[in-house]
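Entry:
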Amino acid sequence: MIHSLGILTISLLLTAPSGDGEALPQLVADELVHLPPGEVAEAWVIARYGARVGSRLEVEGSERSFLIGPEAEGEPLARAKARRGLMRLRVAFTDTENLEIREVHSAPPPLGVFRMLSAPTRSRGTERTEALLRWALRESGRGDPQLREEATRSWRAHAQRRLADGAETALHWLEFPAPMVGEDPRWLDFANALARRFPADPQVEEGLAAAGLTANAGRWLPRAAFLRERGLVEQQGRVVPIGRVALAKAIESWSRERRRASLLRGKTRGHYERRVSAGEVIEGMTHDEIIQAWGYPPEVTWERRGERIFEAWIYGAGSIYLVEGLVFLVE
């Protein structure tokens, strides 16, 4: 009989010392599905309990999940349910489908867990290292910049060594952390090191493109940055001028607030003249006043909505949005 319990997500299946100093067998998710019939394997795991309905234990790194056996009822499971952070659990895998929770202890903060497991993981192969880095980078997204920095630095060092293992392996080490560190310059540096190591390799070029990079003058750049430098942006699979996208957002804001063009020019002529003399552009100014204050714009885009004409005057220092020839927004 299996009781309906919450899901306990195992983040790592790596050894942590037991309370009496003994180390239990090291296991990774893929090894758990190969236990011989009748064998009981114990391991210390770092886990987080999610109070959701269900009776299975989801294990990262494996497509399999494990039933929490009835032996889990009692104090250990109650203590696991009561915690809302990382835990260090001693669990027993009784077969390829079931497990028991035998001990529940506090775990260090995520940064402490990462440091604790980094050294032994380095000696246990790339699969364990990757599992630890995946966990640490995801965990750092909860708002731990120091963990993000240490995990990213560790990933970069390991990724550099993977260049010697061939293009396919190196591409994998580029791809898996991309959602977490794709904006980090070290990720882009590794992408270009990969391109230099395997020049003109179709597999590498395809992988770099799939990772959102574009080749330009012998260097791979994030596609978004490449387009932005040219005043473009990708939207719904189409490349369009940034000014047109910005104008559409300004029009939406105007419509949402139900503003009226007839109310825009609410100051005296002298007030606008003083602002123009100071080189300022404010709501209600006309085309001529904008030109007197900021000069002619390098780029202009416009759009008709019903009977109204909306414009975007785009300068290096900002953008001005007009409706029916009057400023309604300055960014």
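The mean pLDDT is 77.
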